[in-house]
Amino acid sequence: MTTPVRGSQKARDTLDYLREKISSSAWAVGDLIPREPELMELIGVGKSTVREAVRSLAAFGMLETVPGVGTFVRSRTPVSTLLTEFLGDHDLEEVLVYRRSLEIEAAQHAAVHRSETQLEALRAAALRDEHAERDEVITCEQSTTPGSFHLLVVEASGSKLLLDLYLGVISVLQRARTQGRVILGTTIETMHLDHGAVLRAIEARDVRNAAHSMALHVDRDLGLRTDMLDFSQHTERAASLIGAGYDPGEVPAPVQNSQAAAELEIDARRG
Fold this sequence. Notes:
Pfam families: FCD, GntR. This is FadR family transcriptional regulator. By secondary structure, the chain is mainly α. It has helices at 7-23, 36-43, 47-59, 78-87, 92-113, 116-130, 149-156, 160-178, 188-203, 207-219, 236-243, 259-270; strands spanning 63-66, 70-73, 182-184, 222-224. The strands form 2 sheets. It has a two-stranded antiparallel sheet with strand order 1-2. It has a two-stranded antiparallel sheet with strand order 3-4. The radius of gyration is 21 Å and the shape is elongated.
């Protein structure tokens, strides 16, 4: 005779099932999870148990239910949700600096750890962006869309923690974008060139160029409206990178063995 499973245990088992699917990326960020009847059959529980588990994960920011559409994965772990709330109390300029650091680190790790499958996905994303309209690629939301270039770079880093931190930062910038406080600080053509430079570095497993190409890109990618109205101006770091030959739109290949490049390499290692 088997011992019946108590309701509370069913709820815990259901929660664990959903959380494992999300944290393992079996259900990726942005994916629509199975509908309620499918979950009931998969897990072997009733409707109220499924709904309780979904509500719990929604409270952590991992799931979001859209009426009439379904339930989407919004975060792989609660980390990004908590980080979003934490960063929301900080100066937006500091959040942009933090985002830059994460993306530079991701590019370096991607150059080392990326798989051939991930490289093919990056190539496809870069090619897609080249044929996209401006309003399809300038929003922060695009940075967390499955298959987008920036998200693929972070995923190719192989670091789940880095991915969680990145999603948390982008959530803050998404909010700022809708408020008009963050804008694109470069042209669509320059953005495509920058993506191409990052892609080539990752493809060649060139850690230094991956870091510098991404550093230049994020320095002139998103910025505060107040200090990015004149798109002809660059930040001090971007100007240094351009001077060292890391601008794909001006110099066909990075300048090698220059004093400026050496200084930038040391700077990148320091984070």
